[in-house]
Amino acid sequence: MNRIIGPEATKSATTSPTNSGLEVKWLTVDEESAGQRLDNFLIRHLKGVPKTHVYRIIRSGEVRVNKGRASADSRIETGDVVRLPPLRISDKVAEKEARPAPGREFPLLLEDDALMAIDKPAGVAVHGGSGISFGVIEQLRQARPLAKLLELVHRLDRETSGILLVAKKRSALKHVQDQFRERETGKTYLALVQGSWPEKLKVIDNALHKFLLPDGERRVRVTSNEDPDGMRSISLVKVAERLAGCTLLEVTIKTGRTHQIRVHLASQGHPIAGDDKYGDFEWNKALQKQGLKRMFLHAWHLQFTHPATGKRVELTSNLPPELQLYVNHVKSKSTPPSV
Predict the structure, then answer these.
(1) Of 157, 229, 275, 280, which is the active-site residue?
(2) Which is nearest to 194 in space by CA: 120, 279, 131, 276?
(3) pTM of this prediction?
(4) Is 157 a catalytic residue?
(5) Domain-by-domain residue ranges, the chain?
């Protein structure tokens, strides 16, 4: 069953509390949205409305820009007024809007007018979806209702901790995402893997292919670089410290593929400690008994060029306490007692 409601974050000149979902809505374009295509602008604002429906109401002329018809590829400008008809969304989306994410702030590594760099804890998704009601970005938006824009620059897996960039301006979002795309950033992770990593193995250049399990869960596997369905993926590996039965690695990714580090390391016979998708499950059980309750993968170091100042920024996130405690535990077990 569907309900008729208006888009989020809109104001209507004719809306009343009793019929707020049944009226035409108007959006006024702000500076951060200027220059966008009309279709992209609407998709961002009309959460829960299928893209096919967004394009239909544009084609039919139900969407108006400054009282005139406009095409999907029209560019909107600051001050433009966009008319939207009443729109249907699913009960599931309506229920989600009625119960928004709880506001939450996260530890900050950097914040200015353009960007935020937060220290994301493990166990928190970066955004809602696939059975997850909300993530970091939804919680930040609830905690900062006056923020004009908060958008993820990149992503981290739910169980991965560490540096996560959030843009506060659309120009900053595009600038830094372009750097990621052009491999002009430096992203280095700390990963604890099973066994002794070969000193000579410093580059993993294996394509990755995404696929779905019968239950719909997403997985990734290594494939040939000649595979048309594979995406070339490059990871640079450096041994940070050798420990009893495991190795702490610094892994710098030159491409940002789904589960790249996890699959690359596991494909070499050295899965990440605590990885419940690609890891050694018996080893993981033993690690839990020793106190490691999560995957040992941490976004440790990030370099990028600041979109406003043009200066190179270097950020570091120290190992979270639970990972550092486990490293200390392994060291204490492998160090012979003093006589």
Answers:
(1) 157
(2) 279
(3) 0.77
(4) yes
(5) 2-98, 108-334
Is it true that 2-98 and 108-334 share their CATH fold?
Answer: no
Q: If DSSP states are collapsed to H, E and C, what string results for 258-284?
A: CCHHHHHHHHCCCCECCCCCCCCHHHH
pLDDT tens, 40-72?
888 888 877 888 888 999 999 999 999 999 999
pLDDT in tens, 68-113: 999 999 999 989 999 999 876 655 555 555 567 889 999 999 999 9
Burial class, 144, CB count within 10 angstroms (exposed 0-12 / middle 13-18 / buried 19+): middle
CATH topology of domain 108-334: Pseudouridine synthase (3.30.2350)
Alpha carbon 124 to its chain's center: 11
The CATH superfamily assigned to 2-98 is RNA-binding S4 domain (3.10.290.10)
Q: What is the spatial distance between Cα 263 and Cα 277, in angstroms, rounded to a whole number?
A: 9
